[in-house]
Amino acid sequence: VAECNYFIRDLVFYNSVLTDEEVLALNSGITETTVDMVSLWLFDEGYGTTVTDEVAAYTGTVSDCSWTEAAGILRLDPINSGVLLEHELTAQTSITVSMYIKLDKTVAEFPTVFAQIKTTGNTWEEGYLETLDTIKPSIWYKLAFTYNNSTGALTIYINDEEAATTTLSGNLVL
To answer: Which residue has the higher pLDDT, 90 or 160?
Structure first.
């Protein structure tokens, strides 16, 4: 959706598939790191183009983004903005990614949520999963997706509810 901006906060990567209960617990906020937490990006720098991971001190670069007055919120424009995060996820076979997102204004057509991954058994195109749910402005949504290489399940959660799932095969290609 090119006519609005996105706000993101609390981006977290886990090197395992969280259970439904663990995904639900994310709603209470991130209070401590866990063994399975690979990186935690709070975006609390408030200025500049470098962001820092709270778990392993990786760095990331933001481009054409702006910082909000509230700490920990990054504003992205959907056409020009980018966030490139350093990571050590190359050996991952299963993963959970969680974040909060909000649109800044009403748009002609509300966007849906999608996840796209590549596995050793599927192409990028085959690894595309989209929900029927749409994101409305001025509301924070908790988004999470999981990929379990044992079962092949790619699942998207919106506000703790399973929104879409499909079955793929193989390990993640990162």
So the answer is: 160
Length of the chain, please? Answer: 174
Residue environment code for 58-90, b if the CB has 16+ CB neighbours within 10 A, otherwise e: bebebeebebeeeebbbbbeeeebebebeeeee
Beta-bridge mates of residue 40: 12
CA distance 164 to 155: 6
Structure tokens belonging to residue 146: 């999981």
Contacts of 21 (CB under 8 A, 6+ apart): none
Q: Does residue 61 surpass a pLDDT of 90?
A: yes
Confidence of residue 32 (pLDDT cuts 50, 70, 90): low
In sequence order, the β-bridge partners of residue 119 are 122, 172
pLDDT at 1 over 80: no
